Amino acid sequence: MPRAVKFTRYGGPEVLEIHEVPRPQPGPGEVLVRVAVAPVNPGEAGIRQGVFADIWPAHFPEGQGNDFAGWVAALGEGVDDFTIGDEVIGYLPRAAQADYVVSPAAILTPKPADITFESAAPLSAVGVTAWAAVDAVRPEPGDTVVVSAAAGGVGSLGAQLARLRGATVIGTAGPHNADFLRSLGVTPVEHGPGLADRLRVAAPQGIDAYIDTFGQGNVDTAITLGVKPRRINTIADGRAVARWGVRSEAQEDVFSRSVVAELADLVSKGLLTVPISTVLPLEQVQDAYRQVQRRHTRGKIVLSLVPEEERSAEAARITSGL
Ligand SMILES: NC(=O)c1ccc[n+]([C@@H]2O[C@H](COP(=O)([O-])OP(=O)(O)OC[C@H]3O[C@@H](n4cnc5c(N)ncnc54)[C@H](OP(=O)(O)O)[C@@H]3O)[C@@H](O)[C@H]2O)c1
């Protein structure tokens, strides 16, 4: 039986269970995808803990995971832009961590053959979020841009995308991530008390734009440093948006298959790296969320539903219709 991560009550990672579920059937305009990998994201924990129960209630048994990559396994009526066996990148809130998912064909993006499933899957979530945040602050050549939590999932991609626009990028991180940020062409500055002073030293000419992916006072720091509100974007601090009128562009504002395709093309060309810190089998989903909820992940933690060594055989099985 196909597996799917489910939870039947609000709580911590311990409420996550692997259920056996029927294989879903694609309807008209839909595609059945055999999921190869599905990343974990810290925001998913909030929904599972019931923090957002008033606005986004769970419907038990609720699924978990948003982004995924895998193979087209069956086509619904009227789908003619995919073929069985095609490698695709997708986004399905609260559903992605499952052996099979059904997605509207219109929101699936072809995966370039030369990028890994691990690099591809996060593009539809943290990749698109980073794209939105960078686009919101319009970095230009000559600008100095700060990215908070620059070693994290959104931050590591946002820092690279801002560099691709010609900006000099300063990233905040702990000391253990300083060399990692340098490897991305980003100047590291330690987060925590005294951040504004350290940023003044790192950027004596001033800071033009600020991409906040962590909250907890980063927008206040940006305002203190004289960054214009229209060139500050936060995806993690609604209070600061209300107080300062800064921008809050995020995944849901720009998601489209063309943005995912552009990101995948950048990875394919070697211009963008998706750092993967850990790949865990689906059975370790609780551990994966325990790790991501510590908020010190470098890049992404990804759940593997089909182990790498079995992927060629799985692709052949799907293509042969077995
Ligand atoms: N609305 C949307 O579209 C959307 C989409 C995706 C994410 N989000 C939100 O965006 C935020 C970032 O998500 P993510 O997946 O990038 O997170 P993440 O990968 O879990 O971020 C981890 C990073 O945070 C850094 N960090 C820890 N403490 C910090 C501090 N005090 N100051 C600055 N950085 C610190 C860590 O660096 P060190 O280990 O070096 O400390 C680590 O690299 C989350 O709040 C998430 O919910 C929103």
Notes on the structure:
This protein has about 325 residues and is of the alpha/beta class. Helix content is about 30%, strand content about 25%. The protein has helices at about 40-50, 115-120, 125-135, 155-165, 180-185, 195-200, 220-225, 240-245, 250-255, 255-270, 285-295, 310-320, and strands at about 5, 15-20, 30-40, 60-65, 65-75, 85-90, 100-105, 110, 145, 170-175, 185-190, 210, 230-235, 275-280, 300-305. The structure holds NADP nicotinamide-adenine-dinucleotide phosphate. NADP nicotinamide-adenine-dinucleotide phosphate binds next to helix 1, helix 3, helix 4, strand 10 and helix 9. Its EC number is 1.-.-.-. One of its GO terms (molecular function) is oxidoreductase activity. It comes from Streptomyces griseoloalbus. Keywords: Oxidoreductase.
Considering the chains and any ligands shown, give keywords for the structure.
322 residues, alpha/beta, Quinone Oxidoreductase, Chain A, domain 1, Rossmann fold, 2 domains, 7-stranded mixed sheet, 5-stranded parallel sheet, binds NADP nicotinamide-adenine-dinucleotide phosphate
Task: Please specify the SSE layout and strand pairing.
Elements: E1 3-7, E2 17-20, E3 30-40, H1 42-49, E4 62-63, E5 67-75, E6 87-91, E7 100-104, E8 109-110, H2 117-120, H3 126-137, E9 144-147, H4 153-164, E10 168-173, H5 178-183, E11 187-190, H6 195-202, E12 209-212, H7 218-224, E13 232-234, H8 238-244, H9 251-254, H10 257-268, E14 276-281, H11 285-293, E15 300-304, H12 311-319
Parallel strand pairs: 9-10, 9-12, 10-11, 12-13, 14-15
Antiparallel strand pairs: 1-2, 1-4, 3-5, 3-7, 3-15, 5-6, 6-8
Helix pairs in contact: 3-4
Bound molecules: NADP nicotinamide-adenine-dinucleotide phosphate.
